[in-house]
Amino acid sequence: MDGSALRVYVRDSGLHRLGQIAEYTQLTVIPRFNAVGAYTLEVSADSDKAPLLVEGNGLIIRTGSGDTIMSGPIRTVDWSRSASDGGSGKLTVGGVDDTALLAQYTCWPSPAAVIGSQTASVYKLTAIAAETGMRTLVNVNAGPGALASRKNPLLTLSADGGRGGTITRQVNQFDNLLNVLADIGNTAGLGFKVVQIGASLQFQIYQPAIQSAARFAFALGNLTDASYSTTPPTCTRAIVVAGGGTSPRVCKTYDRTDPLFPGLVIEQFVDQTGVDTASVDLAAQMDQAGAEALTNGAGQGSLSISPIDIPQLRYGRDYSVGDTVAADVRGDWYTDVVREVTLTSTAADATTVKATLGGDSTGTSTVARIYAYIAQVKKDVGRLKTRKAA
């Protein structure tokens, strides 16, 4: 096995290690920033460890030096054989990282009450550090502080560092937990993930680093290819509207000029009509909603690069997903967040790295951006429906 090849271990549903998949054919691992990562593993169906690769078990993927890159449950197991295959064919196993656990939960308006007693329509975070607020949402909806019927017995929380600035936010009833965390984290400049620590899954929040020494260029000999694309913003003016039901209507606009399209004005309605305008924290809630809409609708510049690990600069040691790095693009230095990384490895060869800077973690093409925008609209409509049903 090559020294830089990734190590793969199988775990059971209780997170206990069952064995190592030493001779896999190919492994692709995609860690993502504030989103669910994924992996795909190919192995001979004749492998003595093949019976371990079943739904319900999971994988732990580590570097040759022992650092965990990803862990998560197996979601799909596919078998195939062709005339050119020997033996029993091959298994292709697909899975997601443990951060997917957060997508399984919604944010209850009254987390301490049973479902028949959900009388509130929102859950409020008032004048609280962004990290503390994110941690609280996980704790009361899925973690140790959740109802016994909702509590995930494997989920723990890392210590609260109080990072990310102060937020005041109204979480609509039954919003998806992962989506809410991503909205808060991206606006506050924080990263989050769920990783396996021993026999538990730990929710962690971290402050991404600005890696000024992480610079990639053909002239530096640490880059093999690069491609760059841009897409325009979907929101440069957020029109936030609060009240209008049982309280007077209040409207406010928030503008953010896009550096690539300075003359482009795109207005977007931000529905906060469920917020009582008599609330003492009305301004903070409207400010937070406006900032999130502008962040989510900002123009995208996406740079895909294939860096070469060199002794002075290696993925996982000198930079990681969520960090800010720089790359030479047609003679100019482009600086942005590493949104996702694709690691490809075989048991016998070195691991290759392909990083995506900027854009988002679900796709960076114009088509993907349009679909993301449509998905956001559908999500907003869904939120409006649940609010009216309250």
Distance between the termini: 58 Å
Mean pLDDT over the residues: 86
- Helix-strand category: alpha+beta
Series of H and E elements: EEEEEEEEEHEEEHEEEEEEEHEEEEH
**What share of the residues does DSSP label as strand, in percent?**
35-45%
The Rg value, from CA coordinates, equals: 23 Å
Shape: globular
Biggest sheet architecture: 13 strands, mixed
Helix content: 10-25%
The total strand number stands at 23
Helix count equals 4
Give the low-confidence spans: 361-375
Summarize this structure briefly.
Helix content is 16%, strand content 39%. The protein has 390 residues and is an alpha+beta fold. A hairpin with a 2-residue loop joins strand 21 and strand 22.
Walk me through the topology:
Layout: E1 7-11, E2 17-20, E3 26-30, E4 38-44, E5 58-62, E6 68-80, E7 90-96, E8 106-107, E9 122-129, H1 130-141, E10 155-157, E11 166-172, E12 175-176, H2 177-188, E13 191-197, E14 200-206, E15 210-216, E16 223-231, E17 237-242, E18 250-255, E19 267-272, H3 282-296, E20 300-307, E21 324-329, E22 332-345, E23 352-358, H4 366-389
Parallel strand pairs: 10-14, 15-21, 17-19
Antiparallel strand pairs: 1-2, 1-5, 3-4, 3-22, 4-7, 5-6, 6-7, 8-12, 9-11, 13-14, 16-20, 17-18, 20-23, 21-22, 22-23
